[in-house]
Amino acid sequence: MGKAKVLILEADYDPTRLLRCMRQVLDAFPLELEGKRVLLKPNVLGPWPGESGIITHPLVVRSLAEALGERGALVQAGDNPGVRGYGRMGRLAEATGMLEALGDDWINLASQPRKVPIRSRFLEEITVGGQVLDCDLLISMPKFKTHVSTLITGAVKNSFGFLVGGEKARMHALAPRFRDFGELMVDIYQLRVPDLVVMDAVTAMQGNGPSCEDIRSLGLLIVSDNGIAADAVMAEMMGFRPEDIPLLKVAAERGLGPIDLAEIDIEGPLRRIEGFKPPSTLPRSSFTAPFQGLAFRLIARRAFKVDRGRCTACRTCERSCPAGAIKVENAPAFDSSRCMLCYCCYELCPEHAIDINRLVRFIQR
Ligand code: SF4
Ligand code: SF4
Question: Hey, whose CA ends up nearest to atom 2 of ligand 2?
């Protein structure tokens, strides 16, 4: 196996320029495409439009689908977001703009559930979307984002969308600690390692991702034949040490890809983003990490704050909570004794009405 390659391309959301970029991507990473069934797996976390910076922009997905179609590939794109999202995909496809961008080529990855064995110390079997396993080529299309529990949302975390509906809730219950959850993400990534990664970094999310409103403009696509290398480059650009990101550390230990930039063939404008805000959960040093972890476990689960002006009592948080720790009447009430700190409620609230209390941020500092 040769050296992993990462290509960083300047890009924006203009459809003509994006299509040109995607042709360049396919020239730089040649794949056998004629007659092949190619599945694109963007990160479509919830019912937000591309402009929000929360999801992979539909125009990025469409441009890649178009460029692949020009070379004879049979392309579909899909995701399966949320932790209990059965039956909500139609509405989601419309709200995100994926339906308009991709039409009938947009599919629900939860529509063909299949139970498969998994190599993991947390479980033996798992239910995934069959399309992920049946495609000839899988292209992961993550978004350049932070994440409060896994620290980064990249190619590895994007594989969480392979899981069908309630399986995601089960994973949170099986591996509630951040470090364990990162390892489990790598187990899932290994079920079907992507053949190519095309990351939407035209806009990037900083702070307490993966669904906050703190967006930076980067104007880039990050492309790689190795998801671990792509995520390591993203982490460096964010100003994090890849070895401090549990899922990257586990992936590197398993030989899935390099996290040392010296071992990656990088082409294009690699730059650290000035003043990039990390998630509150990023350890400040290996010395303080255990104390930070303890502080979080003791305090954070009591510290969710709901902005009642924003909350519409839609009950997404209640339905998403794998621990049954939320009851919504006019607004959510949290049972902190049940909470396992998975952050699904924070992540999936469509109104950004749930925040991590300022007290937690203060402790972090
Ligand atoms: S906090 Fe968010 S997800 Fe929960 S009920 Fe209110 S708007 Fe819906
Ligand atoms: S209350 Fe929120 S953070 Fe706690 S278990 Fe439920 S969804 Fe996860």
Answer: 345
Q: Residues 158-184: what's their mean pLDDT? A: 91
- Whether the per-residue pLDDT at 288 is higher than 70: the answer is no
- What is residue 327's DSSP assignment? E
Which pLDDT tens digit goes with each residue over 55-96? 999 999 999 999 999 999 999 999 987 655 545 678 889 999
Ligand minimally distant from the alpha carbon of residue 337: 2
Q: Per CATH, is 289-364 categorized as 3.30.70.2860?
A: no
- Residue 60: which H helix or E strand, with range? helix 58-70
Q: Tokens 């396919």: give the residue.
A: 26
Stated pTM of the model: 0.93
Go through 221-259 and write b for each residue having 16 or more CB atoms within 10 A of its CB, e for each that does not.
Answer: bbbbbbbbbbbbbbbbbbebebebbbbbbbbbeeebbbb
Take atom 6 of ligand 2 and give the residue whose Cα is closest: 321
Which atom of ligand 1 is nearest the CA belonging to 345? 3
Over range 337-360, report the average pLDDT: 84
Best of 211, 296, 345 for a ligand 2 pocket test (most atoms within 8 Å of beta carbon): 345
Whether ligand 2 lies within 6 angstroms of the CB of 256 is answered as no
**Does the domain made of 4-267 have the CATH classification 1.10.645.10?**
no
Which ligand does the CA of 317 lie closest to? Answer: 1
- The dihedral formed by the CA atoms of 213, 214, 217 and 221, expressed in degrees to the nearest 10: -80
Shortest-distance Cα residue to atom 7 of ligand 1: 311
Give distance in angstroms: CA of 327 to centre of ligand 1. Answer: 10
- The answer to whether residue 278 scores a pLDDT higher than 80 is yes
Mean pLDDT of 306-331: 93
Pocket lining: 342 vs ligand 2, CB cutoff 6 Å: yes
- What pLDDT does 10 receive? 98
Domain ranges of the chain: 4-267, 289-364
pLDDT band at 340 (very low <50, low <70, confident <90, very high): confident
Q: Yes or no: say if 189 and 257 are a contact pair by the CB < 8 Å rule.
A: no
